[in-house]
Amino acid sequence: MFVRAQFDYDPQKDDLIPCKEAGLAFSTGDVIQVINKDDGNWWQGRVQGNARGSAGLLPSPELQEWRAASAAQVAPAEAPSCSPFGKKKKCKDKYLAKHSAIFDRLDVVSYEEVVRLPAFKRKTLVLIGASGVGRSHIKNALLAQNPERFAYPAPHTTRPPRKGEADGAEYHFVSAEEMARGIAANEFLEFGSFRGDMFGTRLDAVRRIHECGQVAVLDIEPQVGGGR
User: Fold this and answer.
1) Locate the Guanylate kinase-like domain: which residues (predicted)?
2) What is the mean pLDDT of residues 115-142?
3) Count of beta carbons in the 10 Å neighbourhood of residue 129
4) For residue 152, what are the contacts with CB-CB under 8 A and spacing of at least 6?
């Protein structure tokens, strides 16, 4: 079982952990492999991506929920100090998060379960968004910062080349007839029209990027009514 942590945890600052040295430190966003969760309060796991990382104790979701409910509880000064490890069951039940009305008003997410997927050969990153949201900026940043990993399949278009534009650089310039034949033969991943000209991304352009071991970056703007 793998989970993504939704909070930072430092066992050295936790007064509830049975042994601070046995605790597992992690940060928000870390993926943790849960090895054992038989104990209701303390799970055992290790942080993924840390080759030398050993397994350790981490608080269970129930314990984190109890912490949140206890922090939100405004108790009288003379109220007894209780924890889920108290000897008196009456005291324990009174403050356990699952029995607390305060917890019903809290939105506590300690861990998000995730699935480890096997690596696959063909990879494509699709940037989708309306005009002006920054798709081109993200695409250009990826291509500039890591050109060995990312590549952009130049679209095909029926638009005449402008001054200084080279065929195959930013666009592949084709005739309307050639574009129509390709569309009819299902050779395009996506296509559309803009100001009377056709634009589209051919599947073989994306496949060539995959064959080079790179990630194809697609910059797509959702359309309503056929515009590009």
Assistant:
1) 122-228
2) 82
3) 13
4) 139, 143, 216, 217, 219
Paired residues of 207 in beta bridges: none
Answer for the pair 26, 8: CB distance below 8 angstroms, yes or no.
yes
Predicted pLDDT of residue 220 = 76
3-state SS, residue 105? helix
- Say which residues have a Cβ less than 8 Å from residue 202's Cβ, sequence separation at least 6: 153, 156, 172, 182, 187, 188, 189
On whether the CB atoms of residues 168 and 202 are closer than 8 A, the answer is no
Cβ 95 vs Cβ 82: under 8 Å: yes
Mean of pLDDT over the chain? 83
Longest dimension (CA), the chain: 86
Alpha-carbon distances of 10 from 15, 23, 70, 81, 147, rounded to whole Å: 11, 8, 19, 23, 38
Q: How far apart are CA 94 and CA 84, in angstroms?
A: 10
